[in-house]
Amino acid sequence: MGLFSKIKDSASATIHNETRNCPICGTEIKFIKGYVELQDANICKTCAAKASKFYSYGKKFTTLEMFQEHLAYREKNQEEVDKFNSTKVLGKTNKVYFDEDHNKFIITDRSNCKDGNPDVFSYDMVTGVNLDINEGKTELSYKDEEGTSKHYSPSQYDYHYSFSLTMHINHPYYSSITFTPCNTLYIKNALINGSVTNAANKTTTTTQSTAAKKTTTTTAKTQTTTHRTVNTRLSTTWKPDVSSNVDYQENLALANEIKESLTQVREIGREEHKLICPYCDKTGTPNPDGSCPFCGAPME
């Protein structure tokens, strides 16, 4: 057993210490430090990081040639970023920056819209925009005099709402892009916490600072103490009235404003690219393949 174990460990060490050059930049890849797998090659993480955040790639469906073509597009996109001049911005978390002089726009979560080589889209690429509001809830519990955790009767919940926009687009690499224009909205249960004004915007993250963790712990302890003093036999299950919640209505108005703006730029882009068909003499925006939307003949 000892001999086979040593052979296995030696083979494993050889694999993890193996080095290979990235086929894109030539940098040496040490497999123990990680790499990105494509269908027919492994590339370094530095090259992989140059891809757009909206670009989906992976071992099962992206070849090296496809990825290199995307990186070539990214280099050209940087030229568009350098020329981009923001004249209007909408959003809180992910923002939409508009260059109204050149009919272009950018979607990014950076405070500086040019950081990170964000994709530059032209108005005529937009084909539609949808707004989705997702409601989630967390069931609340309390501890009885013996310290046993129990659920309220009837059940009581805290609620949270996320607003997301999906932009459908005619683009070589994306058919749709989904983004959140504002933070998730959390609303505390008014029957348990005593007031519906506890609603607040909070950013959903996977990491917290030490101070944030301490604050969360303190809040949780305070909430447990409060639960011990409230009536645990409630007459109804509470749900927030979002129509009168200021934070909810503010987020809704912002999401709708962005949706309307992107819908308007779609129309501007379509008007800008209208042509007269030389075969049927009708004026219209060519189909993606350049054909007339009325007779199907080539317009360009």
Explain this structure:
This protein has two domains: 13-76, no CATH class; 84-275, no CATH class. The protein is 30% helix and 25% strand. The protein contains six helices and 17 strands. The strands form six sheets. Strands 9, 12, 13, 14 and 15 form a five-stranded antiparallel beta sheet that branches. The protein has a four-stranded antiparallel beta sheet with strand order 5-6-7-8. A two-stranded antiparallel ribbon has the order 1-2. Residues 4-17 and 195-229 have low confidence and may be disordered.
Task: Chart the SSEs and their pairings.
Layout: H1 2-16, E1 19-21, E2 28-30, E3 36-37, E4 42-43, H2 45-48, H3 64-83, E5 88-90, E6 95-99, E7 104-108, E8 120-122, E9 126-139, E10 141-143, E11 149-151, E12 157-169, E13 176-179, E14 184-187, H4 190-193, E15 200-202, H5 210-229, H6 246-272, E16 275-276, E17 283-284
Antiparallel strand pairs: 1-2, 3-4, 5-6, 6-7, 7-8, 9-12, 10-11, 12-13, 12-14, 14-15, 16-17
